[in-house]
Hints:
Elements (H helix, E strand, L loop, with lengths): L8 H7 L9 E5 L7 H14 L4 E5 L7 H5 L6 E3 L2 E3 L1 E2 L6 E3 L16 H13 L8 E5 L6 H9 L4 E6 L3 H16 L4 E6 L4 E2 L6 E2 L7 H8 L3 E4 L4 H8 L9 H19 L1
Parallel strand pairs: 1-7, 1-8, 2-6, 2-7, 8-9, 9-12
Antiparallel strand pairs: 3-4, 5-6, 10-11
Amino acid sequence: MDQGNSSAPGQSALLKQSKAGVKSVIAVGSGKGGVGKSSLSCMIAIALARDGKKVGILDADITGPSIPKLMGVSGQPYGTEKGIVPLTSQLLDIKVMSINLLLEDPSKPVVWRGPLIGGVIKQFWEEVDWGELDHLIVDLPPGTADAPLTVMQTIKLDGFVLVTSPQELSVLVVEKAAHMTQMLDVPLLGVVENMSYALCPHCGERIDLFGPSHVQEIEKKFHVPVYAQVPLDPSLATLADAGNIEKYDNRAVFDALLDGVYASLETVSS
């Protein structure tokens, strides 16, 4: 089977582009669906914005976009001489670009082959007027095929944050994404375990709903820090469904994500 140039780091590095005004670009991915990757992309963006940074989110999940819904962003972007102007969130002015903002009916599926999907992702990077940003968060779709590959070969990423969940199966799949970052010379910054546990609302006892954690296996194997083990929180789900994820307030989680991202970026740049 012809694998193309997907495993040629040298060639992919030649294609990567930085963008004037965008100081750092962080991809958030998992290799596996259903681990809350998009929610974590939003939470990392929110943590940075609450710290006074100018932040944007590029929704690279073309066939399953959820960022606009989570961030409560609706409407249609417009174009200027500088490019497409992204919409902004209500509370923190986080800039958002997603295919769902360009569709007449967001409920209709995007039934496109890989080259078309890759082309849209490139447009979101090259033709959107992101302006001055301290951090651009790129929310990747699951898997290690066309869309994540386009991002890693097109955009000069400052790092990649892995999102996993406690199940051993999740760790096995997420490791594929970790290996992909190594193949394409993308710095692996850290890992977040989502839905790590739940707290009993009556007694506060910790409940490992999905079994024991395996995140330390990723930490040891790939020599990356664990930013946080995020609990399964019904209030987060309620706010996300209502497009109010910016109102979520779990200081311990947000502080852990912020400290982890800052420390990792400093390590990579040194």
